[in-house]
Amino acid sequence: MRTDTVDTQFFQRNEALVAITVSLLLTVGNSGCFSADGREPTGAIPQPNAGIMDTVQRRSPPEVKKVPEIERPQPRFPVRQTPESLTVPGFEPAAFVTPSEDTGQARPVIIVLHGNFDRPEWQCEMWQEVGSWHGWILCPRGVRTPFATLAEDRWTYKGGAPAISAEMIAALDALDARFPGAVLRRGLILVGFSLGAIRLPELIRLHPDTFETVFLIEGGLKQLEAGLPMMKKNGVKRIGLAMSTAGNRQNVSVVQNKIKRYGLRSVYVDMKGAGHNYRSDFGRTGNRALHQLLDTVEMTQAAEADK
């Protein structure tokens, strides 16, 4: 049998079938797999039988919308302010810092007592970062120390707790007079650094039901331990501690355990390496400690969100 004759006859008889086969091959080629002429298909794809299949456009992938990021709360640390001078009748001018946020309402006061050979401005500068979110920072000046020159500008407190008490009250009155209606005389916080911390328990004795929250820095542990029963009786509920020298750091755990046995809230900031001073990060660590001490949860939530 001659195959060339059979093949010719086959294609003549099945011409329509061959045309359909070629059309299908072109369709597959234009679908992105291959094309009859070896070129990549682009844009609109014309089909061989326009009457049967309309022109097909390539479909773009669906637009993917970006999910907005969740805004995490950030810890709020007040912008550093320069302490201002406050005239206090009968005493040297005090230093003070205004609340970091104006809520339109009267705000409580944090009274900060400095140490020996110290300045009230230094205490106000540190505590404005620690606590001006809570209210006013007020730093009584005391008297000049005889062991420094005028140029050194160093101060101390004399006359014991009664003299400091009189100056504290006068400074509060002066602040209230300068900013009428903006100073809240309830919810006062008393802070003492070194000499100020040593005098703090006796000031609580002189002012019952005045200070629910106190904070002692680099001193006063012995006086605090002895005065705990009286301090609780006089309304103290929360005690903050921050120590840096070796002796104070060694004794703080014993005192803190006694604080807890009296059912008082307590927080401790370890300032190891700072000497008889604040450590450079106390603005932030003290800020967090004060929030914990006052049982405000916003800083704890922000800290968890940052992890």
Layout of helices and strands, plus pairs?
Elements: H1 3-13, H2 15-30, E1 84-86, E2 94-97, E3 109-113, H3 120-131, E4 136-139, E5 143-144, E6 155-156, H4 160-178, E7 188-193, H5 195-206, E8 211-217, H6 221-233, E9 238-243, H7 246-261, E10 265-270, H8 282-293, H9 298-306
Parallel strand pairs: 3-4, 3-7, 7-8, 8-9, 9-10
Antiparallel strand pairs: 1-2, 2-4, 5-6
Structure description:
- Mean pLDDT is 82; it is low at 1-8, 25-48, 52-56, 67-75 and 297-307.
- The N and C termini lie far apart (87 Å).
- The chain has 307 residues and is an alpha/beta fold.
- 34% of the residues are buried.
- Strands 1-2-4-3-7-8-9-10 form an eight-stranded mixed beta sheet, sandwiched between helices. A two-stranded antiparallel sheet has the order 5-6.
- It has nine helices and ten strands.
- Helix 3 packs across helix 8 and helix 6 (221-233) packs parallel to helix 7.
- The protein has two domains: 1-55, no CATH class; 84-306, 3-Layer(aba) Sandwich (Rossmann fold), CATH 3.40.50.1820.
- The protein has helices at 3-13, 15-30, 120-131, 160-178, 195-206, 221-233, 246-261, 282-293, 298-306; strands at residues 84-86, 94-97, 109-113, 136-139, 143-144, 155-156, 188-193, 211-217, 238-243, 265-270.
- Strand 1 and strand 2 form a beta hairpin.
